[in-house]
Amino acid sequence: MTVVWIGIGGFLGAICRFLLSGWFNKKSYIGFPYGTLFVNLLGSFLLGLITGMGVSSGIYSFLGIGFMGAFTTFSTFKLENIQLHGQKKATVSYWYLGSSYIGGLLLAFIGMWLGMK
Question: What is the value of pTM for the model shown?
Answer without folding.
Answer: 0.88
